Amino acid sequence: MMAGSSALHPDHRIGVVQIGLGPIGQGIVRRVLEMPGVRLVGAVDPAPDKAGQDVGSLVGRARVGVEVQPRLDPDAVAGASVALHSTGSHLEAVMDQLLALVEAGLSVISTCEELAWPWHHHPGPAQRLDRAARRAGVTVLGTGVNPGFVMDLLPLVMTGVCTRVEHVHARRVVDASRRRGPLQRKIGSGLAPDEFDRLVAEGRLGHVGLPESAALVAAGMGWRVDRIDNVVRPLIASRPIETPHLSVRAGQVQGLLQTVTAWQGDRERVRLDLVMALDPPASEDAPTAGGARGVDHLRITGEPPLEVVVPGGIFGDTATVAAVTNAIPRVMEAPPGLLSVKDLAAPGWWSGAAW
Amino acid sequence: MMAGSSALHPDHRIGVVQIGLGPIGQGIVRRVLEMPGVRLVGAVDPAPDKAGQDVGSLVGRARVGVEVQPRLDPDAVAGASVALHSTGSHLEAVMDQLLALVEAGLSVISTCEELAWPWHHHPGPAQRLDRAARRAGVTVLGTGVNPGFVMDLLPLVMTGVCTRVEHVHARRVVDASRRRGPLQRKIGSGLAPDEFDRLVAEGRLGHVGLPESAALVAAGMGWRVDRIDNVVRPLIASRPIETPHLSVRAGQVQGLLQTVTAWQGDRERVRLDLVMALDPPASEDAPTAGGARGVDHLRITGEPPLEVVVPGGIFGDTATVAAVTNAIPRVMEAPPGLLSVKDLAAPGWWSGAAW
């Protein structure tokens, strides 16, 4: 099954269009421009400082003769088989874009966090998308590094060598000290603790997609999920922290600790701990040596029990660009519908060579 | 695509037959008997102490009313959709069995090490099997923990979050001290160094399947392989080692170190180091603490660079049983032909529930 194969270009390259030109979208464009088997035929972003520019120049590369379009209309996506989509984290906010792409006959690979496994938290939109994709004969996939890989797909893959699985635990520690200013603010750095709690209560702080990862793991294991809890707590700085973007005083927030648990009855089946902080507190598996203070740590309780450590952790921005672009040939070969990373062929690097 | 779906039992369980009742085959049977969605309809082994016995009793479980057949003939596999096959490591030695199963209309999941990626070292048999499987509308897969997971599929999966990959290195250290006697002898323990070298030269020592893993990794990365080197060296004991099965004197062999490298021109692309020894020498990532002296260690050179550590290492026998049985639903849904683990849906535990 080769959804969209009829839209291969005469030169046999896969035509793609990039929707959204924030930092991740721009990273995707840079990688796509290096892939000989892929042809960037369009780019869409409504920002006044982007629309109208050559997309190559916009991302710091040579001009490519593709002008950024302000609107997602049929002209903007003509000639594309696959849309790479990175405009937002919340499914409801991007539903119209996803449906427009599907109805234009494009498969979609999106970084929308809630799309990674929308069947639990957003069953209505998931069904609508799935039906539209099947009708159009295209594939829709939500992916990235988190959700989409390190706290869901990778633990699922590890269970492939288990005869029994009782519980899945993933812990990710991200040191935000050297990351972009917006990310440092997104994790609450510099806030007073009560302001942090207020923003959490309003749903404005916390990593979007973590509950989806837990639901995806549970679905992969065949566990019926009765409840998913999502708790976001502040990490309070015990000493001042300075970054190029902001200052944190002792007693202010240096980052967040988010814990999502998925329950089958009164039995915890999945636990995901995400620490995103400036100078996250050291722990035995997040040594300070070498400057890399992040870590990814998986623990499968079962037979055999398994522990997996990624020292330093997987660097998020690059990994998300990779997850999206490496998925292109897999999506081209997938059956139509709304799929998840666990349904596709096993992940892997794609050189971008003619396909 | 549901190869063999027409052979689902009236009760909707998947009918399987087990070919080969050595330690791994018996482990597979024990797991299959626990899977409500699978029905064991046959078992074949020519050994006089096995044929004619009830297969449940043979594996230390309750009688199941299935008698071990001495020969792989049509009666022995009647009612099965999938054959689970564990009779040998070398492809040429099991080709007739594999072809007979395929021609009987069964998909095959085999632990035959050389079947994990036969396209490089055994292209003729690979083509024959592929053609026969397509003709019969069934799927043939070689899998296990090594080859099939830890030194090939897992590194491939990790590259799914890389935008660039230059080199893949996997190192596996297995402490054979507490393993079965046959395994301890298979790795040369207790031999004199010159006897070890003679057996290596005769192709009678060394882990079968390691060159196949390297070829599989290269194929997954899209690297043309010009040469695969396979070097097996003895590890010499510096002090006496006693196990329940044998004694090693200082100066005798305590195990082996096997290194396989895959080359694209004069560029090393894949390096696999396998240490299998009694009390393998400690190294920084194989601490002696806790008694678990094995480790699996992956290193991807690329963007981002990635390191993955499985402290203790993945326990082989259980993991191979798991890899085979967890593949059942994936093979049922796969297209016909000779596939590899990288072509199937992402791996993961299967509870064995009705499918």
From TrEMBL, chains A, B:
InterPro entries, per the entry: DAP_DH_C, NAD(P)-bd_dom_sf
Q: What CDD domains does the record tag this protein with?
A: nat-AmDH_N_like
Q: Where is the 2,4-diaminopentanoate dehydrogenase C-terminal domain?
A: 149-348
Q: Which domain of life is it from?
A: Bacteria
Q: What is this protein called?
A: 2,4-diaminopentanoate dehydrogenase C-terminal domain-containing protein
Mind giving the lineage of the organism this protein is from?
Bacteria, Bacillati, Bacillota, Limnochordia, Limnochordales
